[in-house]
Design goal:
2 domains, four-stranded antiparallel sheet, mainly beta, Immunoglobulin-like, 2 helices, 7 strands
């Protein structure tokens, strides 16, 4: 058996024809193509405290009016649909781009979540959602005496 080492610096590594991979590199590394092929779903942090569940969604560059938060049974959905249309009348364009960004993130709430007490706030590019726990789900803490 022969081991073949892969060298990422060598572009012709594993290629049957010289320059064959360069064709695909030029297509897939084009910024116009990359901007539209990448999924732009914001990252989320989920944490829990004694009384609440906390969801933080990193979504910079948006306004609080861009968000739509809905609850259907135990499914919390956060969606954004943002359209930007650049129009300048009186110019002949050879290229004109429309911008359309949207995403949906959904989270299943645990049975211990109180759907009646959900609060959301958007500041500094982070959407923060606080979900209260039901009273019976809150952890009871007490000292246990050693005998």
């Amino acid at each position: 058996m022969t081991l073949v080492k892969f060298d990422p610096a060598n572009k012709n590594n594993g290629s049957l024809l010289r320059g064959f991979n360069d064709v695909f590199d030029s297509i897939f590394n084009d910024t116009f193509f990359n901007d539209r092929i990448l999924a732009r779903v914001p990252a989320a942090n989920i944490s829990e405290t004694e009384n609440n569940y906390h969801v933080e969604l990193a979504a910079p560059g948006l306004k609080k009016e861009d968000f739509k938060i809905s609850l259907d049974r135990q499914l919390l959905s956060i969606s954004v649909e943002q359209r930007t249309e650049n129009t300048n009348e009186g110019k002949n364009y050879s290229k004109r781009e429309f911008s359309y960004n949207s995403f949906v993130r959904s989270f299943t709430l645990p049975e211990s979540a109180n759907a009646e007490h959900i609060e959301a706030a958007y500041a500094d590019g982070i959407l923060k959602i606080d979900i209260a726990k039901r009273e019976e789900a809150k952890q009871v803490r007490r000292q246990i005496e050693i005998k």
